[in-house]
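re: ur question from yesterday

yeah so i grabbed the chain u mentioned. its 419 aa long if i counted rite. heres the sequnce exactly as i have it in my notes:
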Amino acid sequence: MSLKEKYIYMIEENQLELLDLASSLIRIPSENPSGMMDAVVEYILGYLKASNIDVEIAYCEKDFPNIIASIGHDEDNLVILNGHADVVPVGDINKWGFDPFSGDIVDDKLRGRGTSDMKAGLAGLIYAMKIIKESGLKVNGKLELHVVTDEESGGQYGSKWLMSKGYGKNAKACIIAEPTPENNIEVGQKGSLNIRVETYGVSAHGSIGNYVGENAIEKMMTILPSLHKLRDMKGIYKKEQLHVLEDSKKIARESLKVEGSENVIDHVAVNIGLINGGIKDNMVPDYCVTDINCRLPIGLTCSDVEKRTRQIVDSLNLQGVKLTFEYNCEANYTDDTTSLVKSVKSNAEYIWGAEVTPAYQWATSDARYYRYENIPTIQFGPANLEGIHSYNEDVDLDDIIKSTQVYVGVLFDLLGLSE
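ran it thru and got these structure tokens back, copy pasting raw so excuse formatting
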């Protein structure tokens, strides 16, 4: 048995400590927005300090503390682990079949808000660091853990800020424990663009609205169906990306089980999310506003979609229309030929005993902030996708254990861990 295999199996042998850590994190509420992060941060700090891991807290905003923990000192070979300790709100407590902050283990599953997204994965990263530190293994480089507390609100006080301040900016690799299927390594994400459409009309008495006035809502009703044309826009991929694209489309089709759902990967997605107009039903409305979110595939920029949106609206020859665009993020990816992706794939296939495929994702996360700095970045973590951002969230215990084994295996590869 190799040294790496010895420590991989050590995770399984000491799984109770790992699972207890994950359960403890679930029992500490850290909803975002509206929650407090101090308690969960203090717990993690205490756990890391108990293993004599170097830690510091970095604040961009006092309500969102970030933990930076490290082992080793050679930043010429820096590897980052990233996880967020905040979770989405519980929502209607009556729709849960169990206490969302119980952290209970039932039927080989850990239950509660944040189990999949992503406190179980975070526990795996923390426990991997503990194993490496307490073992006394030599680190050929530096391992740095970023625990952030505002991923669910966009990351501006966490990963985005940490990168802007130079934390880990020259890293060779970044592993994020966001939830993924066990047979999927996330290597790319869509971009995000918000569009606000405002229409202006002329108010009048509703009884004569067919003849006088100018109905802002009807004007909006003309625009919105036309914006479906944005969904015809396709991503632009390099030749060497096409095999990842095809695998990603297959995964989407099998996951969503809806005809045509594979297009979510390489087409623009358009969601008309909010609409508001008028004052009273017997008044011709003189104002209407709609907020739309678009997700952009690799190869298309926010500017490309803005240009196409303006072309579509201009072709309607309507007066009194205002368009506003908010560029949230651009599509981003890591080449599947990098040593990071190869290592994750190799270790995951060894541990799971099945093929594991690099793929693009239709959502967004903090991965973009590391990729913007040209840091190879992947996401791989324990998950039951059905409960994420929903009710009755849980995760399989086996998934937690195996994901942590993958993290340890990859760190052996990237950091040349030795006795």
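noticed a couple things. The chain is about 35% helix and 20% strand. also The chain has a mean pLDDT of 96.
anyway ttyl
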